[in-house]
């Protein structure tokens, strides 16, 4: 199949992109093509048929196919980001490059979520789908899982420590890809291709700082390639360190919201609340003067409208980190050894070490009666002297803790990925590749904690006194209220605080063999190609929290409490083996029409059970004329249950639920039951238990897409694709309230009592003995993870590339990208209606659309790029609370547009100097006046950031080669 004008036009239009990157990344000694190394060109033996040799050399293995081919554009849309793109557009990390891409429309947690489960990790959501629905590859091999759980439940991949200077390019495949890449490839595949050689020893140094302060960084990388006979190797190292950004570094987050729906409300650092009146009770005889030194002298007597007086600071929440303190070191090597013309041995090692520090500041550094003292009664105790129910709270200031920078939580991650193998060719047209890959990721979290026994003893001795029995079910105390308004010394603070140390790890072993024939037989459009893959291996996950997080103690008042104040954890561990086989057949039916067929069978062996699934894909490429490609795909995708979903250990809890079945028998509808049904059925206390489920089945999806690539003139290309996902059997934890409603619907016959849904509901709810027409009271509810939810997404993805020479003024290159979510519906439970998350903002704050583009000018030793990124509208805060765009005060925020700029100058061949400015105009998140005055972060931290303008200076020097 000869290279078409379309291919030539695309290659020209991507002159600064994927095509050049592919050539730059080739091995010093070409080897047979392999999906393990998407940047290697194929090589043929010395054959008598020179035409076959030339044709085979022309073919390149690209992400999205196992068969080398000459066409750049195929039935599979591919988005590529080169190392040159990342630098010119100002991206300072791989995570940033992916998160700013137009396909990354989903909200994701990150460092600004300083009290989340994975503050030290970064990831991406493709088209608003869950982060675990994207398959990440490094050089075509599955990337190891991060040991921490996203949002406390999902296994995912961490992008924060991939060495940017070792990356050659990144290929993104939107849409389901399981027929080639297996589990997780529902939203798409992201393949990070690392460099395979450098022309000469090279050193790259970069320093950066933010114009508003904090976050300064320094990075250095070194790389070299050398050959010794048949042995070729590249070695690279990178080290980077960053200072944190604190809330007080930014005007928007240094104090409580000045433009909210309520007046700015200082933190309630010293608070007494009446449970009978709902008002604050101010009992400091010194009017906060004894604590006035707190928060840099800003602690003072405050008034909250409608509530009353207390001691607090308008600036307390600024003492939390928005960006982590970070140190990262990476080592990368790629080596090959040519045994003979038919065999090349290879080995790859990527090692990463990252150390991060962060704190949520005063948000989680407090003592209050709501945690332990009167935790069983929502924090309220009875004071007989006052004749009132009271709640008390004390938030520690930086002066009391000895500075929040000295009590930061710490995360240490050490990971590596090692691959050893051999590849070559046999017979006339067959290539083979056999390799072993092992990945290992170990995580240690040292989290700053308060310990229940010591902190309760301290406040019992200084403020509360001992419990004096109970009154009407409430614990009874007669506190010394004046003592609450005294600062705690740093030494006393240290006496009831410290660190817990928790460990988690993941590991994965994979043996993979592939054979490929690019010319299996001849067809009217050319040679058919075949690739067959077999994989086998095992994987494991282990989460081992600090033992104290699982323990209880008896406090000074004789009550059973968690060892760690207000904090617990759930351990889990498990492993499984797996097997997969893949086949791909590429059929050039006609000169203009090509079909690509692929199928894959995956089997997982879990707890003496087999969980398996088969996926397929049919792709068509039609070229009615040389400058136009029409393409389409239809197939399936899947995601195996995660090890955390399968092996999370049991965790018990107590809660309350409405007994809809018994309330209905008493004459109350589901709408009336929570408020009008008599006790105990209106709110029945039960013991719940959640746990992993080894019997979970795969999440499945039907996927299809269609689109075109058009190159009307030389050096110009335009592509657009429509993508569809219909996802079933998503794993969710059972909701007790919905389970109770399901039981009721089964009881009245709305749902078939003999159905699997009803049998499941009946089995998960345990009741005591019944009486008359009523069933027994609910005593226990099991809430395991089950395959229950469904999701449907329609989206479009488009791009435009154009390169225009401008004579003596050099050359201009324009690149534009756009994505838009047209439909996104979810259904968590069978009795739930489908939710249109694009119109119901309570359920999603994702961007509906994103667009970005760059204009690059080059001439001789100079180059400059201007880049923009337009984030579409999202719901304002009040819309997410009220789940409405119609209620007063609700609405959508204005688009957020950021600009980056860079200039590179080569004063000599082997030296490149660059200036990069990110967020050129220091743009802050869109103004959202619907937030209340009780927050210091009046923006959605999962969508926006307040980092502002950053300036970087970079120098690259090549010892003997070119720095361009």
TrEMBL record:
It is a multi-pass membrane protein. The keyword Disulfide bond does not apply. InterPro entries: Beta-barrel_TonB, Beta-barrel_TonB_sf, Plug_dom, Plug_dom_sf, TonB-dep_rcpt-like. Residues 1-24 form the signal peptide. Keywords: Cell outer membrane, Membrane, Receptor, Signal, TonB box, Transmembrane, Transmembrane beta strand, Transport. It is found in: Cell outer membrane. Residues 27-54 are annotated as: Disordered. Residues 428-920 form the TonB-dependent receptor-like beta-barrel domain. GO terms for cellular component: cell outer membrane. Residues 27-46 have a biased composition (Low complexity). Residues 71-189 form the TonB-dependent receptor plug domain. Belongs to the TonB-dependent receptor family. This is TonB-dependent receptor. It comes from Dyella japonica A8.
């Amino acid at each position: 199949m000869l290279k078409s004008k379309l291919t030539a036009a695309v290659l020209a239009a991507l002159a600064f992109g994927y095509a050049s990157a592919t050539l730059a990344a080739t091995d010093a000694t070409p080897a047979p093509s392999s999906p393990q190394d998407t940047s290697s060109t194929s090589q043929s033996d010395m054959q008598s048929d020179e035409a076959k040799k030339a044709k085979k050399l022309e073919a390149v293995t690209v992400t999205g196919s196992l068969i080398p081919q000459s066409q750049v554009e195929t039935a599979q849309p591919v988005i590529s980001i080169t190392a040159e793109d990342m630098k010119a557009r100002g991206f300072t990390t791989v995570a940033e490059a992916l998160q700013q891409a137009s396909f990354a429309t989903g909200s994701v947690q990150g460092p600004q979520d300083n009290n989340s489960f994975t503050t030290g990790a970064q990831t991406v959501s493709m088209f608003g789908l869950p982060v675990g629905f994207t398959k990440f590859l490094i050089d075509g091999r599955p990337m190891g899982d991060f040991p921490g759980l996203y949002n406390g439940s999902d296994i995912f991949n961490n992008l924060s420590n991939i060495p940017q200077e070792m990356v050659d390019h990144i290929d993104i495949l939107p849409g389901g890809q399981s027929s080639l890449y297996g589990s997780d490839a529902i939203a798409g595949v992201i393949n990070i291709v690392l460099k395979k050689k450098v022309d000469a020893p090279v050193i790259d140094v970069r320093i950066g700082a933010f114009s508003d302060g904090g976050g300064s960084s320094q990075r250095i990388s070194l790389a070299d390639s050398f050959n010794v006979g048949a042995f070729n190797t590249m070695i690279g190292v990178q080290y980077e360190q960053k200072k944190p950004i604190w809330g007080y570094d930014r005007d928007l987050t240094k104090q409580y919201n000045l433009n909210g729906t309520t007046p700015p409300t200082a933190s309630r650092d010293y608070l007494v609340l009446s449970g009978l009146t709902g008002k604050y009770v101010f009992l400091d005889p010194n009017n906060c003067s004894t604590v006035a030194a707190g928060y840099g002298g800003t602690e003072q007597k405050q008034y909250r409208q409608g509530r009353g007086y207390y001691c607090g600071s308008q600036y307390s929440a600024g003492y939390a980190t928005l960006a982590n303190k970070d140190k990262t070191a990476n080592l990368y090597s790629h080596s090959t050894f040519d045994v003979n013309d038919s065999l090349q041995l290879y080995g790859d090692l990527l090692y990463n070490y990252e150390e991060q520090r962060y704190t949520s500041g005063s948000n989680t550094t407090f003592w209050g009666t709501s945690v332990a003292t009167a935790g069983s009664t929502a924090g309220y105790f009875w004071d007989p002297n006052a004749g009132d129910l009271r709640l008390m709270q004390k938030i520690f200031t930086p002066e009391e803790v000895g500075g929040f920078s000295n009590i930061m939580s710490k995360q240490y991650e050490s990971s590596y990925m090692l691959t050893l193998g051999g590849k070559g060719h046999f017979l006339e047209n067959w290539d083979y590749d056999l390799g072993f890959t092992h990945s290992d990721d170990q995580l240690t979290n040292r989290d700053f904690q308060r310990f229940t026994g010591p902190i309760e003893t301290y406040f019992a001795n200084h403020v509360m006194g001992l419990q004096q029995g109970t009154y009407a079910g409430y614990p009874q105390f007669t506190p010394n209220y004046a003592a609450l308004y005294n600062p705690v010394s740093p030494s006393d603070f240290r006496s009831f605080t410290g660190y817990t140390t928790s460990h988690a790890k993941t590991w994965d072993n994979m043996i993979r063999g592939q054979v490929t024939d690019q010319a299996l037989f001849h067809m009217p459009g050319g040679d058919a190609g075949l690739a067959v893959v077999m994989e086998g291996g095992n994987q494991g996950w282990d989460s081992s929290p600090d033992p104290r997080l699982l323990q209880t103690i008896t406090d000074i008042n004789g009550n059973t409490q968690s060892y760690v104040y207000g904090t617990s954890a759930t351990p889990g561990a498990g492993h499984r083996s797996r097997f997969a086989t893949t086949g791909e057949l590429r059929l050039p039916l006609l000169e203009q029409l090509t079909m690509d067929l692929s199928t894959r069978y995956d089997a997982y062996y879990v707890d003496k059970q087999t969980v398996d699934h088969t996926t397929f894909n049919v792709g068509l490429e039609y070229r009615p004329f040389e400058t136009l490609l029409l393409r389409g795909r239809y197939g399936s995708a899947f995601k195996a249950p995660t090890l955390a979903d399968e092996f999370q250990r049991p965790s018990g809890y107590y809660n309350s639920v409405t007994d809809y079945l018994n309330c209905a028998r008493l004459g109350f509808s589901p709408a009336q039951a929570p408020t009008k049904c008599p006790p105990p059925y209106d709110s029945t206390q039960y013991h719940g238990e959640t746990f992993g489920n080894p019997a979970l089945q795969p999440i499945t999806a039907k996927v299809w897409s269609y689109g075109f690539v058009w190159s009307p003139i030389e050096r110009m290309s335009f592509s657009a694709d429509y993508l569809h996902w219909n996802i079933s059997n998503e794993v969710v934890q059972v909701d007790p309230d919905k389970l109770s409603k399901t039981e009721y619907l089964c009881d009245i016959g709305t749902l078939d009592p003999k159905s699997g849904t009803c049998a499941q509901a009946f089995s998960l709810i345990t009741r005591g003995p019944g009486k008359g027409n009523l069933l027994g009271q609910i005593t226990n509810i099991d809430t395991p993870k089950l395959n229950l939810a469904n999701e449907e997404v329609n989206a479009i993805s488009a791009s435009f590339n154009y390169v225009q020479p401008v004579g003596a003024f050099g050359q201009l290159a324009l690149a534009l990208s756009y994505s838009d979510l047209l439909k996104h519906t979810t259904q968590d439970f069978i009795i739930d209606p489908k939710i249109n998350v694009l119109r119901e903002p309570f359920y999603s704050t994702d961007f509906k659309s994103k667009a970005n583009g760059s204009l690059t000018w080059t001439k001789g030793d100079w180059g400059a790029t201007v880049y923009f990124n337009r984030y579409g509208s999202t719901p304002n805060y009040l819309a997410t609370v009220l789940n409405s765009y119609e209620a007063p005060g609700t609405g959508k925020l204005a688009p957020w547009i950021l600009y980056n700029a860079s200039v590179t100058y080569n004063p000599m061949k082997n030296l490149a100097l660059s200036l990069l400015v990110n967020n050129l105009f220091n743009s802050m998140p869109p103004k959202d006046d619907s937030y209340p005055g009780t927050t210091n972060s009046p923006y959605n931290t999962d969508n926006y950031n307040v980092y502002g303008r950053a300036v970087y200076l970079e120098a690259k020097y090549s010892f003997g080669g070119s720095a361009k």
